[in-house]
Design a protein that fits this description.
The chain is mainly alpha-helical and 394 residues long. 80% of the residues lie in helices and 0% in strands. The N terminus is likely disordered.
Length: 394
Amino acid sequence: MFNGTENPRRIAFSSHNLSALAGLMLFSFGLGSVHAFSVFLPAMERDFGTSRMVASLTYSIALASLALGVLTGHRLYSKLAPATYAAATSLLAAAGCLLAGFGGSVTVVWIGYGLFFGGANGLGYGYALQLSAQAMPRRKGLAMGAINAAYALGAVVFPVPLAAALDEGGWTAALLVLSFAIIVFAAGGSILLARSRMFYARSAGRSASSGDVDRKVIVSFWLAYGCAVMAGLMVMGQATGIAWAADASERLIVASPAVVAASNMFGCILCGVMLDKAQDRVLLASLAILTSTALIAMAFLPQSVVTIAGLAAVGFAYGGVISVFPASISRNFGVSAGARIYGRAFTGWAAAGLLGPGLAGWLYDLHGNYRMALVVAAAIAVLSPAFLPRVGRT
């Protein structure tokens, strides 16, 4: 039975490893639906008679709960077999969606979708990342990139069936569809995980605990990660607005979120593969430069072609960052300590997610365009490599 501590040369591409990775990708794909929340906004406003701001708080609560799940989940990873863990967290996520669908009030939606679905999402997403590193110990970058790509794909695919369900059956029907889909993909993932005969090994890799790591190192990772993802999260939250401000065609405006998401998935995979053969710091610095260059071009050359290309570049870099950071931390500190350290660094992502889109909207309202928001995001992106602590291969 593979426990994450065997000779990596013998297990790099075994059928058990590939089965585990495929199961984790299915599991992650279902959880990625949490980021399709924007499709629910009009229905929430209509069915609950609430404002856009109040409805949007649901997603903010989900992001905060997601971050909390990633931060604390490492305490649970070794308690259950992978198939059981995937099933349990997915059932919690599905239960949260059902509660939101039948609750009948905004407060219940906040609890169901925001707290339960968001929290289960963090528990599952963090687990999938860390277990994939054990499944492919010599290809951690590729493995974690695949998980992130599958997770992002969920956000791309789910809006279509959810929008159709909203049109046909309303709010409750859409949440029922979402709950069912989460369970179906989790079931498929759990079957593959059970076939892989894998389990989460706390002792895999280096044995140092996060408590042995200087607090300054963790703070540095927090700042570096937050600065690195700020632009991507800002762009994902404002993609259609940025395209509209650049006088893009209606077709390009509608397609802009998909452009960012598709580039995000491509960045997850390619940068994950590159990390297995490159220096972490060099790769992250390159992604920061790409992000900053694209943002500056979008700010001072507000033409539709430049803007769409810039959105694609920022999406690609964001996908690279969210794959490189967890893999880099894992290979520098080991899987067990790395899971705890990454959980703390991930709260920097949550902070950027709460701050970035709102900051862009505020600066747009203040100046009547996105130029200042894009320049600020470019400056923040450039700062990211400077905060990276000098440890191991980073």
